[in-house]
Amino acid sequence: MIKDANNLSSSRQDLWESLYARKGLKKFMEGEGFFTSRALGQNFLINEKVMNSILNSCHFPAEGTAIEIGPGIGHLTWLLLHRGLKVVAVEKDRLFAERLPEWRRRWGFDETQLTIVHRDALDVDFAALAGNLGVRHVIGNLPYNVSVPILFHLAYSDYRFESICVMVQKEVGERIMASERDKQYGRLSIVLKYLFHASKIMTIRPGAFFPQPKVDSVFMKFVPNPQADVEFAWQFLERAAHIGFLHRRKKMRKNLQGCLVQKRVLSDLLPEIEKNFDLDQRAEDWPIEEWIRFASFIRSCPPAES
User: Fold this and answer.
1) What is the tens place of the pLDDT at every residue in 46-55?
2) Is it the case that residue 6 has pLDDT exceeding 60?
3) Where are the domains of the chain?
4) Fewest 10 Å CB contacts: which of 47, 89, 237, 286?
5) What 3-state DSSP class applies to 198?
6) Would you say 132 and 184 are in contact if contact means Cβ atoms under 8 Å apart?
7) Under CATH, which architecture does the 231-300 domain have?
8) Residue 5 pLDDT
9) What is the DSSP code (8-state) at residue 207?
């Protein structure tokens, strides 16, 4: 199942292989005395063939150091280490954070290959963490319930990763990839596709996970857009899109009334906005380029006096 299998003892090989089979994993978890947590959105991707296909398809490097978000038992972690990478694993679950070093020793990996950060990903300063360790890539199976906040946290981390490769719920992936006049189109599509070149790598069915989720997942790759202005996206573009999509069926003119963007009172700016934008359209009618132009226009306006 793994490359250079002869380098592992037969007992370690059996133990390794048990992690990637449903019955073996269940037995392993019972022996270790733990269960998955629904509250933390734990659904482990256990299909090794799928994981290797993902790593190959997204051209994930085989050297250097990568940050992995939510390693869990380490199904992906051990494959990354076996490929030659060093991994900085960000894990919220205390039990997994404590056991991962033990399992690393059991699988025969060196302690220099794996660093554990026991913390919620939303509380991690990724710029500092990556900068100190020279990390250029992020990978992870993001919990469904916090995948969008984590994506925005990474996007606004003030650090230009070469790639961010993550698993999200299929519905979230569709929202990210949606274009104007699509019912899935919105703030997520606009901001993330402004900041990144986003691509869908693969759809993963529930049968590849343990326990099985009720929905499909997608693995996505995000490569930073070198021309994107992160501060502009955070302060103006996301806020403008949020306002525009508060009431999807209302026209833009109605949605802008009574709203603020960085101390700019949009109601007061309506005469000027109407000269430059079609406010009889709905938010979903504006392509990303129009949203960027709109947010740039708002930024160019002076803030209201306090």
Assistant:
1) 999 999 999 9
2) no
3) 5-227, 231-300
4) 47
5) strand
6) no
7) Orthogonal Bundle (1.10)
8) 43
9) G
